[in-house]
Amino acid sequence: LPGPGPADWLQAPLEPAVRAVLVGFDEHFSYAKLCQALRYLLRPECLLVGTNRDHRLPLEGGAAIPGTGCLVKAVETAAQREAFIVGKPNRFMFDCVAGEFPVEPARTIMVGDRLDTDILMGNECGLTTLLTLTGVTALDEVRGHQESACPARHRLVPDYYVDSIADLLLGFKQ
Amino acid sequence: AQGLLFDCDGVLWAGERAVPGAPELLERLRRSGKAALFVSNNSRRSVAELERRFSRLGFQGVRAEHVFSSALCSALFLRQRLLGGGGNGSRAGRVFVLGGEGLRGEVRDAGLRLAGEGEPAPGEPVRAVLVGYDDQFTFAKLAQACGYLRDPQCLLVATDPDPWHPLSDGQRTPGTGSLTAAVETASGRKALVVGKPNTYMFDCIVERFGVDPSRTLMVGDRLETDILFGKNCGLATILTLTGVSRLEEAQAYMASDSAAAKDLVPNYYVDSIADLIPGLDE
Predict the structure, then answer these.
(1) Pairs of residues, one from chain A and one from chain B, whose beta carbons lie less than 8 Å apart
(2) Per-residue model confidence as pLDDT tens digits over A13-56
(3) Could you report the per-residue pLDDT of A54-113, keeping only the tens digit for each?
């Protein structure tokens, strides 16, 4: 965008053909881009789509960088609208897979490390779900959901878990 | 009423234009001995800049000490939390500010030190992240803020919750609220919000001027901030229609079954604050 400040950015012409704002992981996210997104989203027919809601992308050593979910939240707040989220736990991506390959949910296992994305999507799509503990989730988190009185939290509980997917090799040796 | 609290944007002025009749209203209030104070969620400007703005737009006699901006009050809040109780200044720690020079200046004037951008971790710890209106906000600054917030002792403070602000041509710019949402999501923390509708700014006003809420009116243009602020502070409220909120929105809240919605209904409304002038003669 030309110019150093909002007064300049708000004068920049908008492209008439834009019909959607898509928010993904953007390490160059800025107020200027947020400004432009808001301008497009004020058109009633403009869609707001986010790739996913992950809060954080873990790095080695316990540090993390902000995830796409933060940028989606910034845009949703400014535009006072909810984004359509394509990624897990939304079933859209499973539907994409099922559209291209002959997948039978009853004979398919979803393997993931995150309860509120991988496992939830698997459960919602009628797949068998397997949690691996090599990622973001610790077992006591699962127990917490399992013991909860809230039915929504039960949807986050996997059918099985392994310490690592390497443990599945044991199944093949038999 | 003994005094009035006015929001600024959308009430006294819109962009660079004073609302017609607004300067006259303030002048009449002054002459009739009624107090007029100003409480704004806008965290861009220092109160010194705001004093000049009042003067430039034709409002006479408004001094910096009458103006309570979220920038000033955030600085006072941080001073209380980080320096309060006779704390040693050098152990107070630094503040990482996401905001412009107006906000940064208020924080400095409160006796606090700012963390630089892109500075490495060692040195005096960062004890607070302050999110304000930041038109230079970037992913890198968001990541830097999150790094500081890994320390549970580091405060997360936001100047105001406003999701967007209107411009005179009908466009909108993103507000502090949208940036705070990003920081909250990344850090897993909830921000302490200084500005309206929270009551901290009223505490600052009472401390300086000893205002009696039962004899003070709050005049604002945004139901979710100004009117709710008035309700939270025990003030009667007047909605003016020269700003953000439409009359239909107030009517919708009034018709709602939710108890929370009732708090957003003003006691009175006017098309513009100039309409208050005839009432002063009575």
Answers:
(1) 95
(2) 899 999 999 999 999 999 999 999 999 999 989 999 999 999 98
(3) 998 888 877 789 999 999 999 999 999 999 999 999 999 999 999 999 999 999 999 999
| CB nearest B185 (choices: A28, A39, A69) | A69
In chain A, residues under CATH classification 3.40.50.1000 are: 6-10+17-85, 102-172
Please name which of B185, B106, B102 lies closest in space to residue B145, comparing C-alpha atoms: B185
CATH superfamily, with its number, for domain B3-41+196-280: HAD superfamily/HAD-like (3.40.50.1000)
- B140, A64: Cβ pair inside 8 Å? no
Which chain B residue's Cα is nearest to A53? B185
Average pLDDT, rounded, for chain B? 94
**Assigned superfamily of B86-193:** HAD superfamily/HAD-like (3.40.50.1000)
Residue identified by tokens 């949910």 is: A105
Give the chain A residue whose CA is nearest to the CA of B145.
A66
Nearest to A70 among B140, B173, B186 (CB): B186
- Nearby residues of B136 by Cβ (< 8 Å), 6 or more positions away: A30, A31, B100
Q: Is the pLDDT of residue B87 over 60?
A: no
Active site residues of B: 7, 9
Given CATH 3.40.50.1000, say whether it is the number of domain A102-172. yes
- The dotted CATH code for A6-10+17-85 is 3.40.50.1000
Whether residue A140 lies within 8 A of chain B, CB to CB, comes out as no
Above 60 in pLDDT, residue B85? no
* Chain A residues touching residue B183 (CB < 8 angstroms): 70
Chain A touched by B253 (CB under 8 Å)? no
Note the pLDDT of residue A61: 78
Residue recorded with tokens 């995150």? A114
Yes or no, beta carbons of B172 and A42 under 8 Å apart: yes
Residues across chain B: 282
Check if the beta carbon of residue B225 is closer than 8 Å to that of residue B162: yes
CA B137, B138, B140: angle at the middle one, nearest 5?
130
- The phi and psi torsions of B84 (rounded to 5 degrees) equal -65, 160
